[in-house]
Write the structure tokens for this entry.
Amino acid sequence: MASSLERKSHPKINHAEPEDEITKEEEDESFCYAIQLVGSSVLSMSLQSAIELGVFDIIEREGPGAKLSSSEIAAKIGTKKPEAPMMVDRILRLLTSHSVLNCSSVAANGGSDFQRVYSLGPVSKYFVNDEEGGSLGPVLTLIQDKVFMKSWTVLAWIILMDCLGLSWLGLSWITLIRRLVYTWHCLKLLKNCYKAIPDNGKVIVVEALLPAMPDTSTAVKSTSQCDVLMMTQVQGGKERSEQELMALATGAGFSGIRYECFVCNIWVIEFFK
């Protein structure tokens, strides 16, 4: 009889034990975490943006326990751009999903709606300038500096060329430029779909959803990172909440939506007439 060591080292024998099997929930969690890792640079860039805009200092100056909406924060930043509160909110929602900030809701529009308000959490204090103007902000700025980042690219090329048996000098003249420019007119597209399908027709949408209030789950972290990434790379691109998706569907003329199935943080959704 082969020893346990021999069985483990033999490539043709599969002795997987029941504990090696993972559940669907664990598989979905692993997928969400993989997506989070792919977009992990979005978190540091969002944190850098919040520091440069002075978000942490703005909330700190309002006093202990202060809670500010993205509109109030945008106003204190001093920007006049109408889309600024929305952009700030998306960045802060991502930071909340990573426990950098706290988020709660307050009534708005006479109680018929709500808005998110943000406050400092235990982690936030390290990004607030102290009495001497010190914080972890400059450290993050250094790491995000283009010279610092370029060193990682050079390192990757050196390793890659060594694996391929190529010299650095032999390929030093190569410059790779990759730029993807997107324009996302999803409402216009959905209106055209609505006109094209029959009365009993439907449009299948495959989409991730953001919760109305951010939490710290892996799914929300990965979706929030994708949301902020799209904000910077895709004109008009965004992840939506259930309410926003319904507004998009009805805005295009559809009667409603049905959620058919959910796999790895992605919904398969029907828009129906």
